[in-house]
């Protein structure tokens, strides 16, 4: 192998542009790492750089471009940036001219010897461009290079002033960007808007006859050169959108120098610095100063032209859709005509070398003409071959004529290159196939996400009479796990047992993984216990399975068993990542710290271990230790999206939204491709806290991303607007979505349900069906819940029947809970209880809580006691259950029983969740807890609430609903308690800061628990007297109050059907018999609708829609409603 590798080095030296691949790079270059010497706004002159800073060159290449600056006479001088903007006032000052350059062509000279090997080009001029600025473009430099002489013709350079940033943000950004190189003052003096830059750039192009509007906007015999595709493909279109201008037509095609470099030298370079280092060219000026980077890229272009490179267009933008860019891969790799003599041996000796791709290119050509049995082993290292096969347009392989082993490797290679169609061509043309051929194709399907395709191939392979091996089973079990296809997995497991593969470790590992992902952790444990010779992968699969199933403690215990088993392999990155996830999911920070210590001792915890360190960040965030999370985050050199997401969400969930948004903007500057999961998660936090302004700010940032709005992000935006109470905005976002999945429709259905718009929810559900989108179990749950909230009994029952008949979806306990709630709200408690007793699955705590709550609403104490006993027996540690029992007794006036329930909960150390509300005022969120007086404006809030109560009493006859204060205390104390409810305090602050005269405005309040009846009536009256709209989101739904009415239609209040109680309202629904001019009596009919009788008029029957018709509010009330004692406080009995 050593001799083969030496032969490779000799062959390489003949064709490589690098005479010695062990070239050195200057470790320090003063002007590239210190402040660039620039003139200030008054053209004050700094000291000249020392010749020693720029004199030495370690490159062995004799090119002018690598020796540039090596001598004292050719000393590099920084460009006068005032001169490039036409604002230099020191042209007559010799000292200034000695220090600063005013002619860029002098920096980039071309010797006659450099033209010897130059080839003719497709264009006469090249425009080298390298933009600066992540958020917006800050610097726009372009150099014209003559393709014939390689000389620099002219320079265009402008600093660009952002249009969407505040002055404070601009100053901070520019200081960080240009302060270190000393040109921040020049930027402030010369920067102009991007629109003006484009206009001046076009005038400059026209001056050089490179562009005119008469040529359809295309360049005249010229082409742009960029170092990467980002500048023209991504940044310029983004900036045009921000600056509200059309994309100039000359930015439709360009040359990516990295592609040409790879094509010409056969060696990949990450960027400009990498190219210069490989070519032995010194970096001059300041890296990431656009004008200096552009000149350095020009020097690489000159070097490549002098050595015979031909520069061709590598990327072209579609004229019909500017987002579509075609990458011309045919220009990426040029086939090399090497002799085939000894090629396979040469590849064998050098396949592990970084430069092996040169030999492998030749091997590909050799393989086309004279393949041998020896050649197949080379394709084992096909990762090096991936980009060659994928991009070389001259390389066309089929299975015909190749031996079985080589064809199998080709299938595997094409699958790993995500070229499944070409892999199929090889597979179809093979005269003979074995199990390896089939398994390689199946692995490709799994790798590329086509899981069902792999399972179909598995079935077809069985029909062909080919028996699977252990890798075939492992591949398809993995597909079953990812698809959650338990039944198919069970069939494959049975097949394994039949032919005796169940004892193989690889198959056992896949079985554990499959059962874990399908939620059958007990079966996974059984397989694991029966496994013989467990490997580290086996233990990892079991630990990960426990984590996936939510059994963090078992995962940690399994790790302890693994340590005791003393297996040969040490815990790896996958083991430790799963353990950290186990700790974070269970909140076991002590165990997490122990694992952290183990990481440090074992050497895993280092900045390069991005996955592990990211899991540490997630652990500390979920355990509330943001200080440690930030410390771990700062240690990561290559931060992953998961680590960014964890920390941003941690700050947001702790209420530090300023830091969260700051981190997101920093992420946006560092990466233009932000993961959709990160965006969705951040927007989701804003939605949960109903932070409308932050949500809108996030939307403004997201729409500027190159990837645009992905479906998952759009879903989060729709959800955010719905949770903030803006149904119209949510509908607008939903309508603008180009691609809607079942989640998109479910989000809208859920939102409509929360807002009491049940008919809209059912309508959009039916529309989804017309679009041939199959609802899943979550979608059915959403529409059933919407029917429940809106009292749509008939529709709800029809949907539930449809769910029972749907193939592939089994109703969960949550679906039954919705039907129980639907029946219970209609007063059909016996039917609801019968459904719970006869349902085919075991009822959970939630369904019993629903039934108990309905018993309280309807005053059915006996059934409530029965349900309460069951609830406390199966979930006696939940404080909510004791609170519900206490409320049941308190509602009926059973104070002794209520006290016993509260005392029992206290003895067990259980505490009720405190009521909390929050309101956003001038982009600041204020939180209130019921009964607390810690807010600095507490006195002002209390005075405001007392003033409002006075007006409510005088104008509407409002009185406190004392019967809803379920404590055995005096009335005055009850009033104080009711006044201190968190939603009232939040509204009080909004009124205190904005005044009572905010007519036409909307105040939005959000609460973690349900709104009580008294607060509901208080806010209704408030909307009447203040003419302000109030939107309150509680734990169940939205209440939109306007002009004395609520969007819920008071559906939570019922009337005794048996007593046929008639209720008298005035025109606006409030009791005011002395001043009312119009009154309407409502009597419940047999059909469940209110029958209204206006005084002196004939009865009318209304359709149950919320709102007003004439002077008569319309309400819907289902049959069998509850006692009249639960009527709203403003209702009078006739």
UniProtKB/TrEMBL annotation:
Region described as Disordered: spans on this chain: 43-63
Protein keywords: Repeat
Span of domain Exonuclease: 125-310
PROSITE patterns, A to Z: PPR
Biological processes, Gene Ontology terms: RNA modification
Molecular functions (GO terms): 3'-5'-RNA exonuclease activity; RNA binding; zinc ion binding
Signal peptide range: none
Pfam families: DYW_deaminase, E_motif, PPR, PPR_2, RNase_T
InterPro entries named among the record's database cross-references: DYW_dom, E_motif, ERI-1_3'hExo-like, PPR_At4g14850-like_plant, PPR_rpt, Ribonucl_H, RNaseH-like_sf, RNaseH_sf
UniProt entry tagged with the keyword Repeat: yes
PPR repeat intervals: 434-468, 535-569, 640-674, 741-775, 776-811
Family annotation (NCBIfam families): PPR
Entry similarity comment: Belongs to the PPR family. PCMP-H subfamily.
Protein name according to UniProt: Exonuclease domain-containing protein
Organism: Arabidopsis lyrata subsp. lyrata (Lyre-leaved rock-cress)
